[in-house]
Amino acid sequence: MMNLNDKAFLNDFLKSPKQIAIIPHRNPDGDALGSCLALYHVLIQLNHTVKVIAPNEFPEFIAWLPASEEILIFEKNFDTCAAFLQGSDLVFTLDFNALHRAGDQMGSYLEKLRKPFVMIDHHQMPDDYAKITVSNTNYGSTCELLYNFLTELNLQSYINSNAASCIYTGIVTDSGSFKFIKTTSDTHRVVANLIDLGVDNPKVHSSLFNTSSYNQLQLVGKALQQLKVIPNHSTAYTYLSQTDLNDCNYQKGDTEGIVNYGLSIKGINFAAIFIEHKEEGIIKISFRSEGDFNVNEFARNYFNGGGHINAAGGKSYDNLQDTILKFETILKDINKQ
Question: Rounded to two decimals, what is the model's pTM?
């Protein structure tokens, strides 16, 4: 996974106390925050000064992760975050592979930061900003990749129950609770080891998935009411306008997983959700697929995005109606090819 020079550098670097920053992508999910906090729990045991610096706020359904209260938010505490980054000896970027994924504000700052980076990520087509790049698309989650990264550095003995819970969370969320195609026998062996290390797996699942508010369920209902099926393209999509979000008192994380409802329909192998965010001036899009349809390529080619073969995201600067019309037109054009 790492060449001998990279491994030697990290082993030597981590022998004495350093200042280390760990960064997830903007709008961090369970895998991004889980991997960052897991690495945090390992590194503080090695007497390093460590801070996780998230570009923006994270959703409530992962706010229970151990030490999440220690996370600095770049967009809220610029001076504090900038000072720590400037004083850092090493910067880890986890679960993303291009600095713009940290958002416009933090991404621009990181591009000017003259510090050595270590990238740990499982997405396709990594940029080359890092001194050390640990990138493998065969892994279903960055957390599983991180587990093997730590093992390769002989740091697995520092994966305590807190770190294990964070890694388990990322694997669960990015694997769709172990049902996505990249969930392998090795994934389950890692999970077995994590449970042996003290993960309370029923509690983790309950914390992740049994936290819906009344307003969130109303938002799900609205999305299901607006669900459209296009049988001849094996596609389903839905949308949520800014008015829909406002009416249901939208909170960050409330739309998580809604796109999967379309994919649960018999005969559907491609699903999308379009969410209007007027303050940001964009339509946020999530794509999911089953089988060979590559939503990573679809998102990259048409909607300024990317991700994985079966799970990707994108964005549109058109209005909601025009974005959906563009999507439907693209489907028709693809079908003609």
Answer: 0.88
